[in-house]
Amino acid sequence: MSNHPLDDPATDPRTVAVSAAAEIAERTGVARHDIALTLGSGWGRAADLIGETTATIPAHEVIGFSKPALVGHSGTLRSILLPSGKRALVIGARTHYYEGHGVRRVVHSVRTAAAAGVTTMILTNGAGGIRESWKPGTPVLISDHINLTADSPLEGATFVDLTDLYSARLRDIARGIDPTLDEGVYVQNRGPHYETPAEVQMAKAIGGHIVGMSTALEAIAAREAGMEVLGMSLITNLAAGISPTPLSHAEVLEAGAQAEPVISALLARIVAAL
Ligand code: 8IG
């Protein structure tokens, strides 16, 4: 028997998020946050660049959050004071769908951000690129997604419009900071295996440009909660079969580490422009 608060079907996950937001407000001393950032592989250093960290909380101490499953993913929630006076909540503790704990835990951080007052949700990830011109280390704006998890964070007859899920306004702001930023359609697969070359060709054929294991389910929950979403992928590897060399997690970490200072600085400039 699980005693995780999100595992009881009779509990509305948003009430758990409201409790989590109250804990964050109490522990950070910040009643409301304006912007939240989920920092995926390669993006972690942005937290140090966007402003002054005023509080750091181990995420698993907050109701509904799980222990980080992956080395290299810092399991903390940080409250950051931006130069503008806005407050950012940095989520360094993503729960992935492939962990198998259900979609409620995957999107709990997003719902918590919404309950904390956040109106702008920035979702970042490391991912595989389908376009050959995207060398490892290239940041790409997410323009739309294809959710291949066959799951949804929405429960019951909740019909949410996903037109312009990835805000054109926020993408324009990002391109104002770096006009060379490309954009593409993100395909969320379940993972944790990478795709076969045939699956990458399928993703390409149906309109995908980026393959990954996160973000789409979180973006849906963000839209349900009424937030504006900015999505960015760091291409850490060419997707399987696009490059002749096989994928390795070590290669992915290496590409992320190389690109991290550059893309973190870019993200910090984008946040400052919001
Ligand atoms: I980093 O090539 C990273 N994450 N699905 N495919 C999928 N996820 C990824 C990949 C990739 N690279």
List keywords for this structure.
alpha/beta; binds 8-iodo-guanine; single chain; 7 helices; 274 residues; 31% helix; Rossmann fold
Textual characterization of the structure:
With 274 residues, the chain is of the alpha/beta class. The protein has one domain (5-273): Rossmann fold (3-Layer(aba) Sandwich). It has seven helices and nine strands, in the order αβαβββαββαβαβαβα. It has helices spanning 13-28, 46-49, 103-115, 168-177, 197-205, 216-224, 249-273, and strands at residues 35-38, 52-58, 76-81, 87-91, 120-129, 138-147, 182-188, 210-212, 228-238. It has a five-stranded mixed β-barrel with strand order 5-8-7-6-9. Helix 4 (168-177) links the parallel strand 6 (138-147) and strand 7 (182-188). Helix 3 crosses helix 6 (216-224). Bound molecules: 8-iodo-guanine (8IG). 8-iodo-guanine binds next to strand 5, strand 8 and strand 9.
Written as H for each helix and E for each strand, in order along the chain, the element string is: HEHEEEHEEHEHEHEH
If you average the pLDDT, what whole number results?
93
Bound molecules: 8-iodo-guanine
Report the sheet with the most strands, covering strand number, pairing sense and barrel closure.
Answer: 5 strands, mixed, barrel
Shape: globular
Distance between the termini: 44 Å
Low-confidence stretches: none
CATH-assigned fold name: Rossmann fold
The strand count comes to 9
**Total of DSSP H or I helical runs spanning 4+ residues:** 7
Share of helical residues: 25-40%
Helix/strand structural class:
alpha/beta
Task: Using the CA coordinates, give the radius of gyration.
Answer: 17 Å
Strand order of the largest sheet: 5-8-7-6-9
Number of domains: 1
Instruction: Provide the CATH superfamily.
Output: Nucleoside phosphorylase domain
* CATH hierarchy, class: Alpha Beta
- Assembly of the depicted chains: single chain
- Share in β-strands: 15-25%
